[in-house]
Description:
The structure holds three protein chains of three kinds. In chain A, a hairpin with a 5-residue loop joins strand 2 (112-118) and strand 3. By secondary structure, chain A is an alpha+beta fold. In chain A, strands 2-3-5 form a three-stranded antiparallel beta sheet. Chain A has a two-stranded antiparallel sheet with strand order 1-4. Chain A has seven helices and five strands. Helix content of chain A is 26%, strand content 14%. By secondary structure, chain B is α/β, with parallel strands linked by helices. Among the domains of chain B are: 1-82, Ubiquitin-like (UB roll), CATH 3.10.20.740; 87-245, Alpha-Beta Plaits (2-Layer Sandwich), CATH 3.30.70.20; 358-533, Dimethylsulfoxide Reductase, domain 2 (3-Layer(aba) Sandwich), CATH 3.40.228; 685-776, Barwin-like endoglucanases (Beta Barrel), CATH 2.40.40. Chain B starts with a helix and ends with a strand. By secondary structure, chain C is mainly alpha-helical. Chain C is 66% helix and 2% strand. Chain C has a two-stranded antiparallel ribbon with strand order 1-2.
Amino acid sequence: MGLEKFKDRNVGTQNYIKLDLTHPPKDGWSKFKQVLSRAVQPELFVGLWVTLREMNNALFRGKMHTTQYPLEKLPISPRYRAIHDMLRLLESGHYRCIGCGLCEKICISNCISMDTRYDENQRKEVSEYTINFGRCIFCGYCAEVCPELAIVHGGRYENASEQRASFSLFEDMLTPIDNLNLQQEYQGFGAISPNADDNIKKTPLAY
Amino acid sequence: MSEMQSVENMVSIKIDGVEYKAKEGEYILNAARANDIFIPAICYLTRCSPTLACRICLVEADGKQVYSCNAKVKEGMEITTTTPNILEERRAIMEVYDVNHPLQCGVCDQSGECELQNYTLELEVDSQSYSIPDTKRETKNWSSVLHYDAGLCIVCERCTTVCKDMIGDAAIKTTKRGGAALDKSLRGNMPKDAYAMWNKLQKSIIAPSNGTENTDCSDCGECVAVCPVGALVSRDFQYTTNAWDLKRIPATCAHCSSGCQIYYETKPTSISDRTEKIYRVTNEWNYVSLCGAGRFGYDFENRVESKDTKAFANAITAFNKAKVINFTSVITNEEALMLQTLKEKKGIKLINREARAFQIFLDFYSKASGNSLYTTDFKEVMKSDFVMSLGTSLRNDNPNARYAFNNVQKMNKGAGIYFHPVGDTLVPTFGRTIEVFNHKVGYEEAVLLLIIELFADKDKLPNSVKEQLDRAKLVEALGGDSAKFEKSFDKMMKKKEKFSLIVGEDLYFHQKAENIAKLIAVLENCSDIKVAMIPPKTNSLGVALICDLDDEADGFTIGYNASGDFRLSALGDGDLDMPAMNQQEGTLTNMHKRVTPTNAGLDYHGYTLNDIMKEVLSAPTHTIDWTPLLPTDKGFKAIDFDSLPNGYSNDGTENRGYLLDTSTVEVGDIEVNKFDDSIALDGEIAYRCNPQRQFSDFTDKAHQIFEEFALYASPKKAESLGKRVVVEFDNGNLELDVKVDDRMAGDIVAIPDFKSAENIYELFGASRYQKVIIREV
Amino acid sequence: MDATILPEVTAVGVIIKAVLILAVISAIAGFGTYIERKVLAFMQRRLGPQHVGPYGLLQLAADGIKLFTKEDIIPQHANKIIFSVAPAITAATAFIALAAVPVFPDFTIPFVDVFVPSIASDVNVGILFVLGMMAAGLYGPLLAGMAQSNKWGIIGSARTAIQFLSYEVVTGLSLLAPIMMVGSLSFVDFNDYQSDGTWLVVYQPVAFVLFLIAGYAETNRTPFDLLEHEAEIVSGYVTEYSGMRWGMFFIGEYANMITIGVIASVVFLGGYNDWWIFAGWFMILAKIAFSFFFMLWVRAAWPHVRPDQLMWLCWKVLMPLAVINVVITGLVMMAG
Lengths: 207, 777, 336
Ligand code: SF4
Ligand code: SF4
Ligand code: SF4
Ligand code: SF4
Ligand code: SF4
Ligand code: FES
């Protein structure tokens, strides 16, 4: 597979409607014709009709658009990128993060910071972990790069606060241990693709 | 270096069809590297012997498959770096390395600079064809600094090689691990070299060579540096950060006069404390080898958060009334020049004991020989094949002198003679043809006479020397057996071409220093031997060249990292704080006669010596503005600090700072005194000598340097002394714990001088050896 | 109607009428903002204000409280006197114009027997007076924009000058034809002229359309809201205003909208004559309300024009049409 496919950043088709600006009226007569045709066309009344129709739809046909936000909430996509969650292993309940530091490295706003250490079980332990949400731009790179599917974006988007830079600690983002059964796999950036199994070669294990 | 290249014979070779020049007798791999051509290689270490552990460096030379790290270039050789068969071998080798290798790059300390990762990707290994049951491999702590994860080890033997060939400890070796045997059917079915490599890999693991769980070594950490994977790491560093988060600051180690190239690698301390901290020290390990002090003794910085204006005002007052400045050699050339300026402009006397002794000795030497500076350096010593050492405790005084001595034995099939009053059990293990003379203290002249007798062209010798030469008598006087020595000397001299002598601090602190210097001059004049001198402390050479030091002085004294009425201190315990060496930029003059730049690894927010200079006299804006002002008549060059390079090129050329200019003038005949053994010492003798990894208060401050301030003695001697003793000198007493140094032999005890507060120099006076009385308490 | 039956217009009556107009129109202006928001919302299928009071009705009160309590800022380099007076000019001219316009039918307050006329002051040149007053309203935005030492303000006032002055011409010319037909400048005469049930719009459709367009321009409504068009000049002449001063511009604007509605109703749409089964007072209210609604409707439906298009429209289209209309009206009258 060549790289060209990946290098072509011009993805998607744009549906721009191009105006035909090639023939502006030149002489007086054609200008007059243009004025006349614009004056005679009932476009203004079409506009009036449309707004009136929509008012009718809204008032009498129950087609009001408004979601009354704090009382009603729209469902958000599982791919939505809001405040991060730190997931746990379902089997052991241990947090998934291994402290590899890739999220810290890739973060383009440089807002992740972590301390690690050698723990009593001879493992790398994440002793502290923070995300500075005053700087995070919710780009999702951290979730994408995480090899453990440990850091993901959650659905918590109501994060107005008195301080612009509020920090989140590891404990704040970690799935509470008693809610482990409610923990959901993330579908967005960095999640395993449905055909992942087909894309990997397996290591021989027969001996 | 370019000058040297033209001297050596060059041959032309063809690599992948392109013609290149290479040094005759060089390995293909090194020739390729020197010409910027990439050949994969894992196990080979420049400056060490090839081990052929990895076999990935296969190339085709004149139609035959050879290991490029082990095959030498020949005139007209045609080399192909890749053939289909070689590629197949290489890929198979990488696949084999990846069999059962733990998938823990995510947490591994090597991650990001791992050669296993790199080559796996380089050779595009995207699938695995081999498998074998794994064996449990335990992780172990080998010493207070070494952590070994056998699971990650690929048994490339780089660690064992560097430990043996460079460091000389040979503290680790490959041992059996009892892995499953390879399926016989693989033999014909997989690439040959890959099979052979795997066969060995499956059987071996690395372990301390003394058969215990712990290494008995100098804890230099070179094995950690050379390990291509995360198998060997420093215990302190493990899992604390990722390599890619560290900022690399090129610098020069400030602990001893080797002036090794190092990088300080820094990062903020923690989430809550954003001040930068040094996490580790790394080096260009192919071209320079550090000792434990340089590698682990890095956190000696003086954390100063703001300028203490009151202390500064006091300092100015102190400087204005100062008569004397007392300082150490842990100082940059620039600062030394500032002090010299103070002397010139304000008549302040400068006191620096170790540099002064060295200065006087150098003076005697150049008066006698006409050379402005000693004639060789330790890079050259490494290329010789017969090396002698006199007047230095090789294991303790200067690690790079020791590495050179050892490397000569291992790489050049060399021979060596070690002259020293203090017995040492390690040096004889460096090679098979090493003679050791544990001569009496005060017999250093006799040693030089013996060397002259052994190597000099007798016709050229001045009469005053000639009449003192009697080989048998001299050998006997130095405690050897002349008949036995004759025999072994003959063996040692076989096929030897290049001779060198290392001399050290014992000779500078010696009653007969002048006569000794003359003898050295005679030796150089009349033989092929080149002499390299070890400056006593970090920048003693620089200080000796730049400053006009005084012998004695009194009056109001300013101590800079030393005692005085007003103390400037980079240790944080003085009247005004100064930046430590890892917080300073400037240059150091090392024992290789090289002026090397060092950079600030950490911030410093207080006052510097230059600030004081600005107030007291006048000074340029920055300390480094002094760099081009260093005295050119002493060999320094008028080069701006910012244009000094600091690195190595691919062929190993050292591009760090510049070499001092040296000159030679014609001198007349040398008249030496008759050797007189009346100054020899008998009885209980103390030797001023630091334990390995300790050089000064700064190494002592570092948290990973554990060697204590104590009396060190051989196991036997220690037993007879007891636990804690009082050492009585002529001019004072010292109470110390007794520590065993199991590599010492004989009755002489070692007393360290790294703690300046203990005033050890006062107790020892003008000699490194003193007669003492030792009582148990 | 027989003039002799009418009771005498007393000073007390006029004052009561004036206070009445002031109070009611101000309230309506405020209420107008609520209506505007609601109507625009519905047309875009939104809900509009709805949290303060039932259906958001008390939004009006909330806004009032906000406007009164908001800090009144006068910019540092502004001309303070003019800056302070300008909103008052706008509001005052708008209300003075209403003095000559019939609002509500006549009535007599019972017991005290005070007669309150439908027109506070039935000057016989009512139309001229109203037009003049509305033209004088030009000073409000003009001075406001120039006094605030703000570039957007300056642009706003420049636009005020050209827009108001230009469209004044069209308003005048478009009304000239009906005036010629009625032969009077009094609103009462216009009303009476149409008492037979035939609205003047039937005779003067062109004049009616021209008047509407010019009226929108003079009240600074979409599609001619160039004076404070936020996409271009932040807020034009009101950029630096806040609090009640800003509120006065608003009230002025809404009062003017009502005035235009009244003129259109009286001059072209049959005035307060009874129609079919509907009483005259109801008819006039309905017509004014519709004309108000139409302004909102237009705002929801149409985009605004560029300044150059505005000028082009005025001088090259509307003004010639108005002149032609006057000429044709004159010719027809002479022939008739
Ligand atoms: S979402 Fe983007 S900006 Fe935010 S923490 Fe992750 S990588 Fe950084
Ligand atoms: S990338 Fe994932 S596993 Fe690695 S440190 Fe970040 S959260 Fe932890
Ligand atoms: S040694 Fe290299 S390949 Fe092995 S786990 Fe560490 S980084 Fe990965
Ligand atoms: S510990 Fe490291 S250097 Fe030593 S053999 Fe293993 S992989 Fe090689
Ligand atoms: S102490 Fe000396 S030998 Fe050790 S690293 Fe520093 S300069 Fe090199
Ligand atoms: S580098 Fe040559 S065999 Fe390993």
